[in-house]
Amino acid sequence: MDPSHGPASHHNETGNAVERTDSRSTWAQFLSWLECVCVVTFDLELGQAIEVTEKTSICYLSFPDSYSGCLGDTQFSFRFRQSIGRISPDFGEDAYDRDAPVTLQRDLGHFYGYVYFRQVKDVSVKRGYFQKSLVLVSRLPYVHLFHTLLQIIAPEYFEKLEPCLEAVCNEIDQWPSPVPGLTLNLPVMGTVLQVGTTPQMTVNKPFSFLPQHLLPAPTLLPTIHELDLFKCFQSALIHLQVLWELTLLGEPLVVMAPSPTMSSEIVLALVSSIAPLKYCSDYRPYFTIHDSEFREYTTRTQAPPNVILGVTNPFFIKTFQSWPHIVRLGDPRMAGDLPKQVKVKKLAKLKTLDTKPGIYTAYKTFLQKDKVLIKRLLKGIQRKRPSEVQSAILRRHLLELTQSFIIPLERYMASLMPLQRSVTPWKTPPQIRPFSQEEFMATLEHAGPHLTSMLKGDWMGLYRRFFRSPNFDGWYRLRRREMTQKLESLHLEAVCDADLVGWTKDKSEVEVVDLVLKLREKLVRKTGQLSVREGAVDQLEGCVQTIAAALPEDLQNVLHRHRP
């Protein structure tokens, strides 16, 4: 997993780790997209055995468990925590994370694994089956892009093996870095994927490191991260409101599905259902008994954690009996022209391994379900409306619902910001007013979600429950940090515009030295994080140099020794 070992990591038949290094000291472009590429082979005697903790997680998560019965080619995703002690990479003032929506930013505490697993009969193998997974490991949540990439490279790899993988890694190392707002041409194995690294495809000229006349006609990917929401939720359309509220509130939730493909897609769909709000709890699209957090997440000595877990092993039915919300799904079935809908059932009925599909919960929604949406989607099925159109309808509904919920919070949060005229160069930046739940509730009568949403119900009750959730805490911390940076930017600009030289004329040398030290510290620590108008920082640096040069030589030496 260490990028210094090169981009490709293999696991061989004897269970030993085999890693290739490259003569180049850096794979900077490769690492802006992927952490590494792994090949996991099932070992008959040792299973998926390997020594390092992160690689152990990858090995176990890269294979469907024996209950899934996956023959042929299978694709799914997983997510795992980076090992304790590993230092998260410092991407510095990274243009991508600065400008990307919070739901698409790099995950500095976890890795995503995108798997292409092949299991076919092979009489030459002791088990009677060829079993191997090709895994792309990344900090980016680009589920659609990376699974499309695997569809291109995995079949070739299984035929040609290592030389093919080396060539792919070198091609990826020639890709431009992901930058929000740019449409990128990404060549790989004779194909060019054209992608936009923002939620909506941009229409500006595609960027590539290679001359355009050397590239084949591109394959356009309309999204890098979105799933087929309609396919994911088709058997629970009438209970969409339940799933959205459970996700919004960060409730403990288990998704039991017949395959890792279904479990991972549904977990990722749930997390994306509250966009543009970021899901701030942990979530595991595919979770196994070998996961390093298995004991932590299945203990009965404390309340279930605020996580979403996707599982396929029936053993988990007994393990998670104490959890408040469990979604049990089977293979999609039709009831006439429509997909058979699961029912909401009491948790007490979740006892046996052959438990029927259903949503097992005692949760009652705060808001009424949108019957117009459900009728529209069901009618679309009868009319054989394309799945991508159904997904677009569903995604738009969820987006508008989440925005209706979050806009009053954003409006109230903005009111806590001090007025710009209260920011002066001679005082520290003013404080942001504290968030008052009751004060916010009082605003809902005139500026609540009823202005943008037709859904009826107990919105105030939903907000009160939301205030106790990890998603509120994450949203509030992010907004407060952004507002603090905005205040510091305004203060820095005010300082840049002030007549600092004139201010120093009637001040003591100690006060002047103190001013210079504080301004230097602000310039060093803040300018990389803050957004100020062009030229303002240069102007302030010149002013500080002028003030310092006017001091006696012994004090200039003191300043020199204390340069940050």
UniProtKB/TrEMBL annotation:
Residues 35-477 form the UDENN domain. Belongs to the DENND6 family. Transmembrane segments: none annotated. InterPro entries: DENND6, Tripartite_DENN. GO terms for molecular function: guanyl-nucleotide exchange factor activity. This is DENN/MADD domain containing 6B. It comes from Gadus morhua. One of its GO terms (cellular component) is recycling endosome. Residues 1-20 are annotated as: Disordered.
